[in-house]
Specification:
Number of domains: 1
Number of helices: 3
Strand content: under 5%
Helix content: 55-70%
Length: 107
Amino acid sequence: MKKKKKDKRQRIPFSKYTLGGRVSSVIAVVSVAIFVAAVIISVMKNGNAGAVVGVMGISSFIISLAGFAVGINSFYDDTKFLKYSWIGAVSNLAICFGIFMLFLSYR
């Protein structure tokens, strides 16, 4: 009878990832939260939320641009893992692109 080998995954400590990547990922979550709050406010007021939703949308866009810049700058640290750098940079870019497309589609 053969013994089953347990799949032992190597755990990488959270501090081994780049700080900029972790910050960029958190910024992406904050940006999405602001955008979702803006959508909820707009739906609750039947589309008549006014400048509040506009400011929230623009701030979400600017925050995600800043998160993208932080994510890109975190790629220069060669001594740490880049998983969160990729997650943060790509998600912030997707948020920027999505919000920009919403602004373009509005007449």
